[in-house]
Amino acid sequence: MANNENIEIKKLTAKDFATDQDVRWCPGCGDYSILAQVQRSFPDIGVPKEKITWISGIGCSSRFPYYMNTYGMHGIHGRAAAIATGLKIARPDLSVWVATGDGDMLSIGGNHFIHTCRKNVDLKILLFNNRIYGLTKGQYSPTSEKGKVTKSTPYGSVDYPFNPVTLALGAEATFVARTIDREPKHMQEMIKRAAEHKGTAFIEIFQNCNIFNDGAFSLLTEKDTKEDHLLYLEHGKPMVFGKEKNKGIKIEGFTPIIIDLNDGEHTVDDVIVHDEFDHSAARTFMLAHLSDNPEMPTPIGIFRQILKPTYNEGIDEQIKRITEKKGKGDLEKVLFSGNTWEVN
Questions:
Q1: Pair 213, 132: CB distance under 8 Å
Q2: pTM score, two decimals?
Q3: How far apart are CA 197 and CA 195, in angstroms?
Q4: pLDDT per residue as tens digits for the range 90-105
Q5: What is the pLDDT of residues 175-185, one digit of tens each?
Q6: Helix (H, G, I), strand (E, B) or coil at 74
Q7: 116 in Cβ contact with 42 (< 8 Å)
Q8: Other Cβ atoms within 10 Å of 308 Cβ, number
Q9: Strand-strand pairing, 230-233 and 298-305
Q10: 3-class secondary structure per residue, the chain
Q11: Gap between the Cα atoms of 67 and 50, Å rounded
Q12: How far is residue 300's CA from residue 230's CA, in Å, rounded to a whole number?
């Protein structure tokens, strides 16, 4: 008999999570960065490959399971969260991940998304947000800005867009974060933190579609502008930003304002300190809405992380309790009990 104590566990690498499939996204697409950061992060999350499953819907992002050397399923439009929920209930031992897009998850899949968050199903959801429908060739999506001119809105969209972070917060997701395809180290950190979380972990990823919506996030990614337009949320640290770290976010009443730390009137002590474990909905929503104001910086990082029992834990506990009380069920007896009839 082999001595298990002497078995050396192989350290996985990013290559261990790559498949032999040709990656079929447009050259320059931000999806390549997301795939690379996931593959680089997964060796560190401490979960064996055979215990990881990727579920997707329909869209450019939904090719993801083909490119991950784990188990996976390419599902149907908008139903990735529902399929993943069923899998997690049936196999609570698995680490279940969802790859989806702003059209797939927030349009036809919106109902499944909000209820997944509400129930706190133990899933990890990566939302690729390029503010456009890419796979179907450039129609406006639920996150496209008002006035967006596309093939389906030739005179400009009259819709107001979703803010995915505020939607997830409002639906009570217990882990809500945002990152960008051009921030690889930051994205890796968010992925690892989501993997550690127990409950619904949602990450919005700003992702450039260089074919149908190129430059949608250029202010946040270009060297000359990003530092004045990005606010990195770090737990326990003041919300300071700018090329010279001379700007901060202060709360006046219920309104966030930008203060100049070099004006002689303000110091870093006036700046709000980020608390990702803060249960205050008002403050967290305030942060999430900063990105809706073009005069304010766009926050990236973890907006909120709280712990509460998960949906799948509740199901397991209920089954255990009823089984102890009534014994193991018999499917045949259930099918032939109660009101039955015969068709001759």
A1: yes
A2: 0.93
A3: 6
A4: 999 999 999 999 999 9
A5: 999 999 999 99
A6: strand
A7: no
A8: 10
A9: parallel
A10: CCCHHHCCCCCCCHHHHECCCCCCCCCCCCHHHHHHHHHHHHHHCCCCHHHEEEEECCCHHHHHHHHECCEEEECCCCCHHHHHHHHHHHCCCCEEEEEEEHHHHHHHCHHHHHHHHHHCCCCEEEEEECCCECCCCCECCCCCCCCCCCCCCCCCCCCCCCCHHHHHHHCCCCEEEEEECCCHHHHHHHHHHHHHCCCCEEEEEECCECCCECCCCHHHHCCCCHHHHEEEECCCCECEECCCCCEEEEEECCEEEEEECCCCCCCHHHCCECCCCCCCHHHHHHHHHHHHCCCCCEEEEEEEECCCCCHHHHHHHHHHHHHHHHCCCCHHHHHCCCCCCCCC
A11: 15
A12: 7
Domains of the chain with CATH codes: 10-234+274-313 (3.40.50.970), 238-273 (no CATH)
